[in-house]
Amino acid sequence: MNATLQKLEQFGIVPVVVLDDAADAAPLAKALCEGGLACAEVTFRTDAAEESIRIMKTEFPDMVVGAGTVLTTDQVDHAIAAGAEFIVSPGFDPKIVSYCLEKDIPITPGVVTPSEIAQAVTFGLDVVKFFPAEPSGGLAMIKAVAAPYNQLRFMPTGGINPQNAFPYLQYDKIIACGGSWMVKNSLVKEGKFDEITALTKEAVTLVHSAREVK
Fold first, then answer.
1. Is pLDDT above 90 for 96?
2. How far apart are CA 39 and CA 9, in angstroms?
3. Catalytic pick from 41, 50, 57, 85?
4. Which of 38, 60, 190, 193 could form a disulfide with 31 if both were Cys (CB 3.0 to 4.6 A apart)?
5. 103 an active-site residue?
6. Considering 50, 57, 85, 129, which one is annotated as catalytic?
């Protein structure tokens, strides 16, 4: 597995970040690092995403920062130029996957069905995003579709929270869960970075607890 993805596995939870204002990037990154999760998937849903990634990687160079909701190869280029270390897409787009693989960029495309998973295996991927996780059947669905594909591992995202993350984190085919509960948009906009740090620390404790009782 790619070294960047191995780092995400060590964290266990990847904060999925939506930033409307790049001015919030540095304090948010600081809050996450102080909470014990020096990683983030910054979604390309807003105009501030590219600059936010650049700020995070400039001010916190040891932080593992990726770009999420990537829909085009042009967005891949902009994200990587800004400092993104991995790319996440909501669905399986062969064009984006091929483009990233050609450039040796870690790519985690979204999958739900066995057919999409089979495509990922054909492309030689090690990790895929299972999205949207909870609406698509959650952990039970992951276990069902993962059974024939022993070499593939998952990063489920969508509907995961402190109440349901524990069993996901216990399953050995899951490298990490994507989650936004510790970086809610309302907390960011209101500047409640201390609260984000506290929620992040709780998430780290959750990861440790789940992995201790595997």
1. yes
2. 11
3. 41
4. 193
5. no
6. 129
